Amino acid sequence: xxxxxxxxxxxxxxxxxxxxxxxxxxxxxxxxxxxxxxxxxxxxxxxxxxxxxxxxxxxxxxxxxxxxxxxxxxxxxxxxxxxxxxxxxxxxxxxxxxxxxxxxxxxxxxxxxxxxxxxxxxxxxxxxxxxxxxxxxxxxxxxxxxxxxxxxxxxxxxxxxxxxxxxxxxxxxxxxxxxxxxxxxxxxxxxxxxxxxxxxxxxxxxxxxxxxxxxxxxxxxxxxxxxxxxxxxxxxxxxxxxxxxxxxxxxxxxxxxxxxxxxxxxxxxxxxxxxxxxxxxxxxxxxxxxxxxxxxxxxxxxxxxxxxxxxxxxxxxxxxxxxxxxxxxxxxxxxxxxxxxxxxxxxxxxxxxxxxxxxxxxxxxxxxxxxxxxxxxxxxxxxxxxxxxxxxxxxxxxxxxxxxxxxxxxxxxxxxxxxxxxxxxxxxxxxxxxxxxxxxxxxxxxxxxxxxxxxxxxxxxxxxxxxxxx
Length: 470
Known about the structure:
Blueprint: H1 2-6, H2 12-15, E1 20-23, H3 27-38, E2 43-46, E3 61-63, H4 65-69, E4 74-77, E5 98-101, H5 115-122, E6 127-130, H6 137-142, E7 150-155, H7 158-170, E8 174-177, H8 184-189, H9 199-228, H10 239-270, H11 279-286, H12 288-308, H13 313-329, H14 337-363, H15 366-369, H16 374-400, H17 417-421, H18 423-435, H19 438-448, H20 456-469
Parallel strand pairs: 1-2, 1-4, 2-3, 4-5, 5-6, 7-8
Antiparallel strand pairs: 6-7
C-alpha cells in the first residue's frame, strides 16, 4: 500500500502534503479529489467496492474504508445522510481523526439536528468538522470559484478546524470560521436559501412596480376613456412602464439611505451608540446594497425606454400632425427659451444622476470595493450617493415643473405619479439636511466616537450621593 501511495500524488509536491482520504465517489467526491490532486495532495478513496475506480481522477487510489482510514488523518465524508450507516462500524479507526462532513439536505431543517451533529453522535471518537458544503462540484472542477469561494467551517476542536481551513486555502478557497458545531445547522441551510439577501428588495420592488403600474393605468388610460372615450391602451407597452421604472428607481434609491438617516436619529434620541437597533432596521440596513443594485436596474430600463420614445409611431404621428396644423394656419411656432432651458436641464440632471448611479453600482462590486480603502468606499457610497439622490430628485422635479399647480393634472383628484415618487426622496434629503447642520452633526460625531448622554435619573442620583457625602 505504501508503494501505491507514493505513486498517487503529483510528483515531489505530493510528498510534501498529507494524504487526504475521501469517502464517496460521487460527483462532489470526484471533483474534490481532482482539485486536491492539482494542489499537490495525495488522495485516496474509501469505497465498499475497491475495484470501482474507473471514474476516479487520474493519480488517486481507491481502497476499502478501513485501509483508506489508515493512510490519512483528514477524511472527507462526501455521502448523503441516508448512507451514514456504514460509518458507525469504523468508530474505532476514526479515533482522533478529523472527519469533514460536506453533506447538504433537500430542504431547510429537514432533520431535528444538523447532519454534522448527527455524525458526531454516530462516531463520538472522531473530531467532526462541518465545511465545503457551500462549494459546488462544478466549481471545484473548473476552478471558477468567484462568488462561491467562501467556505464556512465549524467544529468543536480548534486544531481540527485549522487543518480543514488550511486545506481550503491551499486549493484556492476562502475559509470562514463559524465557531462551534452548533453552527452546522445554519451552514447546511445556507445553500438551500434562494437569494436570501435579495428577498426583501425584490418584494419591495414588486410591490412598488405593481402599485405604480396600476396607478398610471388609472390616470393615463382609464381616466381618458371614461371621460372623453379616448383609447390610449397602446401606452401600456412603452409610456406606462417609462413612468413606472423611474419612480420605482428613485424610491428604491432613497430607501438605500433612509435607514441610515433613521439610525442617526435613533442614536440622537438615545444619546448612545451602545444599544442595538430594532431588528427591522438591522434587516433593512443589511440589504441596502441589493436595494441599490435593483434601483440601478430600474434606472437603466428607464434610460432604454426613453431612447425608444422618439421612434414610436404615435410620437412621430403627433409631430407630423403638429407641422401640418401649423402649415394650414400659416403660422410658425416661436422657440420658448423657458422650455428649452427646462428640457436641457432635465436631460443634464438625468445624465449626471445616471452616471453617478453607475459609479455607485461599480464600487459595490466585490472586485472593486476590495481595492479601495474604507474612506474612499464611504465617500463614494455615502457622499456621492446623496449627490446622486439629489440629482435624480431634481431630475424628477424639473420634469414636473409647475404641473403640481395645475388643477387639470389631478385626474379624479389624484396627483401625478412623479409627485408620489418624490415624497420619500424629498423626505430623506430634508432629514439629511437636518443631520448635516453643524450642531447636530457634532452631536452625532461625539456619540459615534463613544460619548454617552447621562440619563436624568442617574444625574439626580449622583447629585443625591454627593449631597449625602457632604
